[in-house]
Amino acid sequence: MSHILAIETSGKFGSVAIASPKADSLDSMASIELPRTIGSAQSLAQCIHQLTRESRIPLSDVGCIALVNGPGSFTGLRVGIATAKSIAYAIGIPVIGVDTLDVIQLQAACNANLREKVPAGCCIHATLDAYRGQIFVKSKDSVGRYSESKVVDLVEFLEGCRSVDPEPTAHAMVGPGVERIRRFVDRELVEGDLKQWVAEVSWFGEQEFEPHARFVAKLGLQQWAKGLQIDPIALLPNYFRGSAAEEKAKAV
Predict the structure, then answer these.
(1) What are the pLDDT digits (tens) for 69-84?
(2) What is the DSSP letter of 22?
(3) Distance (Å, rounded) from C-alpha 55 to C-alpha 46?
(4) CB–CB of 96/220 below 8 Å?
(5) Domain extent at residue 164
(6) For the segment 145-160, what is each residue's pLDDT rounded down to a tens digit?
(7) How far is Cα of residue 204 from the mean position of the Cα atoms in its chain?
(8) Are residues 95 and 218 located together in one domain of the fold?
(9) How far apart are CA 8 and CA 236, in angstroms?
(10) Side-chain-facing half-sphere of 167: CA atoms under 13 Å
């Protein structure tokens, strides 16, 4: 196996990383964060070029590309997928699509701060803002089982968490969806016992758990070792739902 190139463009801020299958730690991976002042469409290709130059690992030494293919920003996902498919097709290598919420769950599992602050057996909920009063979420329960990634109404999600385990300290919310949930609770229709329950949940903020390409690389290496790579032509985004315009058109 040669090196893997990882691309993360699911949200506000993106990143790229490159790693060898022999990389023994996340810190040993070369990575670059995309500029926060311009969109990924303008900066992604340039940052990949910068990364390969600074790491002295040319694209000819890359054997696979791993990238997030959803959920996330429609535009960001399209930019990442189009770039990955173009590079992979041009140099004749496969790709691996990674669930954005799996990336956040891996970051949670590797985060020392979270492990110190939450009790053993705590339910970990990886979240992304889905807008329109909804959240993308993938949960790990008290015995370590993971749910499927899904999009769900915010109140339904919170009530579901409370019904699984009414003790709020048994739940931790992580990822870019955290601030959206808290704003929703503060400003909208969450009241009474549920609002009090939410106040006692463990919260880990957006910046600490913004998906990062180093973790995409780690998941990609695991899947590559299992032979789960695919032809770049077969890679498609997983939006989990249609755009607002598409859903409005269906309702007519």
Answers:
(1) 999 999 999 999 999 9
(2) T
(3) 14
(4) yes
(5) 102-208
(6) 999 999 999 999 999 9
(7) 15
(8) yes
(9) 15
(10) 8
